[in-house]
Write a structure and sequence with these properties.
With 352 residues, this protein is an alpha/beta fold. 47% of the residues lie in helices and 16% in strands. Strand 3 (138-142), helix 8 and strand 4 (161-164) form a beta-alpha-beta unit. Helix 2 crosses helix 3 and helix 11 (242-255) crosses helix 12 (267-280). The longest helix is centred in the N-terminal third of the chain and has 16 residues, at 4-19. It is elongated, with a radius of gyration of 26 Å. Keywords: DNA-binding, Transcription, Transcription regulation. Pfam families: LacI, Peripla_BP_3. This is LacI family transcriptional regulator.
């Protein structure tokens, strides 16, 4: 008697069973409650009785059940996904904000869908299209500058939109951040207060990084309004790295031989300036006073310690999360409450 066929059928049946997704019906059956009670528990655990909640939680754990967020979104008009789009996932500034946002949203059962644009508006538009296909609970963008296509998509979507890390224009919906021209002006005024008159702002990729470009513009305006003799802006076409800092310093010294005050578009560039000054024997702050932006971890411990401007990325994350949760819970901010100014803080250290 040939049993090969029946054995293969048994194996195939077992494989199918193993591949089948655990459903809400399975959870309800094991917990001995209705599927609607399981659904309510997943959306609002506090709305289910403690005993039923414990039975459902135990069933979810035993079965390894994972809610289908897309299916849930189709049923409820929005999913439990929040799309966060940043210019770069390598940038420590945005990493702090995203980490804070994720922690704040997780307490409400919301999950983060993260994308990065590499400072490209076309890439941002593509990411927004993808995010909208998930019926997100909210979309978080970086900055106020977007393509016409992105703006049209978001305005037509009726999804809560929060633009973060920048203020100064009319937001699509809500905004959390600070004025970048004011940051640049603070840096210039600080250097002027130290008696520095031959100034330069060193930045990278400012043709794409509009916020760094705004800081440079604010720096130049404040320098000219003060009594700076020279106020140059020097741009590197590549990424804002330590290596770029060294290149930018040498270029600035060619343009301003008596350079005595430098502001950088971020702390990494400032660290490159610091290293290059040490390599070439330029004393900081005696010869050149140096200020960065970001207050990254190393800025307080490098030698000399780095004067910098802290943008409070963690506070931005908390305020963005608050606006998202308010919108989801039916108290969507209106009027002036749609815009939150987190400001900035200048932290003076040895480099100035």
């Amino acid at each position: 008697m040939d049993t090969g066929g029946s054995s293969a059928q048994v194996r195939l049946t077992r494989k199918r069973r193993k591949m089948q997704r655990v459903t809400m019906m399975d959870v309800a059956k094991l917990a001995q409650v209705s599927p609607s009670t399981v659904s309510l528990y997943l959306r609002k655990p506090e709305a289910v009785s403690p005993s039923a909640g414990q039975d459902i939680a135990r069933a979810i754990d035993d079965l390894g059940y994972v809610p289908n967020l897309v299916a849930g979104g189709l049923a409820a008009a929005s999913s439990k996904v929040v799309s966060i789009i940043v210019p770069s996932i390598r940038n420590a500034f945005f990493a702090e904000t995203v980490a804070t946002l994720q922690a704040e949203l997780a307490s409400e059962g919301l999950q983060v869908l993260l994308g990065h644009t590499d400072y490209g508006e076309n890439q941002e538009e593509a990411l927004v299209r993808t995010a909208l296909s998930w019926a997100p609970a909210a979309i978080v963008l970086t900055g106020l500058s977007h393509s016409l296509g992105t703006s049209k998509l978001l305005k037509a979507s009726r999804v809560p939109v929060i633009e973060m890390w920048e203020l100064g224009g009319e937001p699509l919906d809500m905004a959390v951040g600070f004025s970048h021209p004011q940051v640049g002006a603070s840096a210039a005024r600080h250097l002027l207060s130290k008696g520095r008159r031959n100034l330069a702002f060193l930045g990278a990729r400012m043709h794409e990084d509009h916020r760094a470009e705004q800081r440079a513009a604010g720096f130049a305006e404040a320098g000219k309004a003060g009594d700076a003799s020279i106020c140059e802006i020097v741009n590197h076409p590549g990424a804002a790295t330590v290596e770029a800092g060294a290149l930018l310093l040498n270029r600035a010294l060619q343009q301003v031989p008596d350079l005595d005050g430098v502001a950088c578009s971020n702390d990494l560039i400032a660290l490159g300036v610091l290293f290059e000054c040490q390599r070439t024997g330029i004393a900081i702050p005696e010869k050149i006073a140096l200020i960065g932006f970001g207050d990254l971890d190393f800025s307080a411990s490098c030698v000399p310690s780095l004067t910098t401007i802290r943008p409070s990325g963690d506070l931005i994350g908390k305020e963005v999360a608050r606006l998202i949760l308010d919108s989801i819970h039916g108290s969507r901010p209106e009027g002036a409450r749609r815009i939150v100014d987190t400001s900035h803080v200048l932290i003076e250290r040895r480099s100035t």
